[in-house]
Amino acid sequence: MKLSGVFLAYDHGFEHGPTDFDNLNYNPEYILDVAKKAEVDALILLKGVAEKYYSKDLGIPLILKLNSKTSLREGEPISLAWSSVEYAIKLGAEAVGYTIYFGSEEESRMISEFGKIYEEARKYGLKVVLWSYPRGKSINNDEDPKIVAYAARLGAELGADVIKVKYPNDDSNLEWITKNALKSKLFFAGGKKIEEGNLIERAEKAARAGASGFAIGRNIFQSKNAVEIIKSLKSIFH
Predict the structure, then answer these.
(1) In whole angstroms, what is the distance from residue 96 CA to residue 33 CA?
(2) Is 164 annotated in the active site?
(3) Beta bridge partners of residue 114, listed in sequence order
(4) Considering 47, 65, 127, 164, which one is annotated as catalytic?
(5) What is the pLDDT of residues 173-221, one digit of tens each?
């Protein structure tokens, strides 16, 4: 699989519940159709959707996300795996994904589990994508450029092939953030829905700074121009 371009994320049903979806994009078949028409570089799914909707015949590489948490629980964030590398292989995945909430009081448990998942993925030749998300009561602003750069460096130190980080609230020094990923590929998250022009501008800035792509969800499936936006983003990062 390509480690550049656009990864289409569709894990929001677990993370946010149904509020991100309307009568069209709640349906995974619609998302898979968009992914195929736009030829996204990878599709990010959780186990339940991947098991029932994904097929390698789609021609789009699968990144199976192994952990996730709901928005229902309060307190320090923690997200532990509820799927496995072995099952990812069974579903036809070419990579596995995992989130670590650095700064959380529970970070050591997630770091430890990620380490084991990483080594197992390497044994089977799968790529590893890390959602490097500082979060918790000790993190005042997870979009601060210093925090985002730290997140990039943590992903590199842990050996991730691809590091997904938040887009900073001040993008005047994106190159510094990107350099902290070292030889790992840095992808920025799309985040909440923004104007299409602003999204394209962010992508152009990120590409010039050396980032490899966007891992994006809501700015795609909440748009009426989903396929066109993906193709525009791909042209920037490729």
Answers:
(1) 22
(2) yes
(3) none
(4) 164
(5) 999 999 999 999 999 999 999 999 999 999 999 999 999 999 999 999 9
